[in-house]
Amino acid sequence: MATTPWIQQRFEQLRGTRVWRSVFRRGPARTNRTRSVAIFGNLALHLLPVKVREKSLAVRATYYLGSIAFFLFVVLSVTGILLMLYYHPAVPDAYRDMKDLIYVASNGVFLRNLHRLAAQAMVVAVFWHMFHVFYRGGYKPPHEFNWVVGVGLLLVTLFLSYTGYLLPWDQLAFWAITVGTNIISYVPGLGRPLRYLLLGGHIIGQNALLRFYVLHCVILPLAAVALIAVHFWRIQKDGGLTVRDDHERDE
Amino acid sequence: MSETNKYVVGFGSDATKDPRRIVFITRKTSAKVKGEAGPQLMSYPHLVLREAIALQVLTIVLVAVALFWDAPLEQLANPLLTPNPAKAPWYFLGLQELLHYFPPIVAGVLIPTLVVLGLVVIPYFKINVQGEPLWSGNRQRRAQVLVGVVIVLGVLLAVYDAWTVLVPTVLVGALALLPYFTPSSSARYVQFLRSRTVSWWVMTWFIAVALTLTLVGTFFRGPGWSWVWPWSRHAS
């Protein structure tokens, strides 16, 4: 081990300490047993399988689209919480807060740009992920239910993006939500009550802004986290990702 | 994999290395036991490391773009001043384009509901595990059905003047028919199309229509939802 770089030696040493072991419940992951512990001994990672097929790691198998969608959700959570520090869900303070983000808050423009960009990218990534899974045949048994969970996640993603659209309280936001919520009133029978429930009134005003804010920042993210957890965990329980063999017909 | 346990006749080898299972696969086999699973790797570090790299690359790209691409902010919301056209977010512009042609109950309620239901039931359909292509079995009968479906859809869409749906529908229909009329062609794209399944064609048609509607709604619609060219739109 004379060739081991100094920095790596220090890391190995760190992993061997009592404090490290007390935090991660394991020492260095040198054997397959400790590598397994690294996955199932960790609250977040234990949703993943301990082993993966080599083929499913190939970039072409997934293009990491599901992971990218999840990472975008993480970026959105972080930037979203930071944006909440500057935001009042009130008319017209919400719009003033946008101006403050642009002209007053440090890196406010960057923060808002990042949040919006990641939101648009997440919608694209989720759609792309779904179509890719379809063309790979990833919905086939035993993955049927995980596909359904995925459809749920698509809807939550769209609804998250849509509720966020109103929050800047500018003309773009107001009229986009007007177009969308008018459609709801055409649902037979339930249309008007549904629209009233969503807007907290008959018009898009203070109540609607508050409801969209709560949906966007609390209810829908919680729903997304729950569904994401099930989605990941089911990959493991259903025996890993679908891998196609080269001799199999494309589908 | 655990459901195949009843067929296990024995497993050995060093469990710390690569546990192997020997199974008898009965004639009625399910998709999950089909074919070779291939070698496996430990998720830690192989998967975790790749995911970490993916996260880093993604973050770098996002930051780089966010530095230069500003999120739009228009004037303060004014319920008395309706912009023309008032557009939904881009991912709903396909629906808004449909609203232009069909009554709201169809475009705003019926079609979205059917799309979501359609997506949910995909895995519960009688699944074509063998991946039988569209052009197998009674080719002539299938061609008749396909042409019939495209014509009925086409007439229906033409009645409503919904030509942004009609054009992709006819194009995908023509592509689907292409292998039927070129049975002896060995061109690679014909071979590709020839081996496609019915579900592949349905999904491709759906994506083609959704993409066309969204692009048209985003870039080609102006005041009164009239057709405009994106390059002829002047600053309003």
Structure description:
The complex is a heterodimer of chains A (251) and B (236). Chain A is mostly helical and 251 residues long. Chain A has one domain: Cytochrome Bc1 Complex, Chain C (Up-down Bundle), CATH 1.20.810.10. Chain A is 69% helix and 1% strand. Chain A contains 12 helices and 1 strand; from the N terminus they run αααβααααααααα. The longest helix of chain A is centred in the last third of the chain and has 32 residues. The C terminus of chain A is likely disordered. Chain B has 236 residues and is mainly α. Chain B has 2 domains: 30 residues, no CATH class; 141 residues, no CATH class. Chain B contains 7 helices and 3 strands, in the order E-E-E-H-H-H-H-H-H-H. Chain B has a two-stranded antiparallel sheet with strand order 1-2. Chain B is extended and about 70 Å long. The termini of chain B are far apart. Chains A and B meet through helix 3, strand 1, helix 4, helix 6 and helix 7 of A and strand 3, helix 1, helix 2, helix 3 and helix 7 of B.
